[in-house]
Amino acid sequence: MTCAYETRTALYTTVEHAAAMALSVAATSTSDPVRAQSARRLYPLIDHSAAGDGGLARRRASALTALIADVSSSAPADDPRRGLVLAAEQWMLHPMPETGATLLHAARHTALSPCTTPEMVERAWLVGPGIELALAGMRTRGLDGELSAPFLSLTRAAAEHVVPMVWVAHQIGVPRDRLYRCIRAVDQQQWRSLLP
Q1: pTM (two decimals)
Q2: Contact by Cβ (8 Å): 26, 39
Q3: DSSP 8-state assignment for residue 112
Q4: I need a labelling partner for 73 at 20 to 30 A (CA). Which of 55, 88, 142, 182 fits?
Q5: Considering 66, 92, 116, which residue would you say is the last residue of a domain?
Q6: Banded model confidence at residue 1, pLDDT cuts 50, 70, 90
Q7: Residue among 20, 6, 196 at smallest CA distance from 103
Q8: How far apart are CA 128 and CA 138, in angstroms?
């Protein structure tokens, strides 16, 4: 499996994409399943931090710090994932232009690093630029019909990783149960047609 350069560069086009990449990396790098699951609960905090409000992240700092500490302590000192998760933690807690710039730099370094696997890039794309694309597609095309299938498939894949389904349903303004029903009916791999 190879990832196109466009897929890798999409991971650091916005601080939201970079933070999503960091949570994806953290969830797959930790050996503790409870901490890995906490990435799903932390995912909605990205929106708050992007709006300049780090208060909610600071109120949940223990879960965020524990997840980041687990990853940064297990990664070698020269591993770019370590810098990425630490930069994401700083930005989520203190969303300012300086911490955002540091996060974008760390995300670029990680995305373009030779030690970053195509699988890692793919998962990060799913929960960052990918889910953003899926949300836009479902808002304009709805949940029914053949044209919506790739977006539903992408949502399903992202939800299997760190994106909470409740958050997706809230973002597009539909009941969670309806979203679940639509997602179960789609081909699991159809989202790959949306990869850059």
Answers
A1: 0.91
A2: yes
A3: T
A4: 55
A5: 116
A6: very low
A7: 20
A8: 16
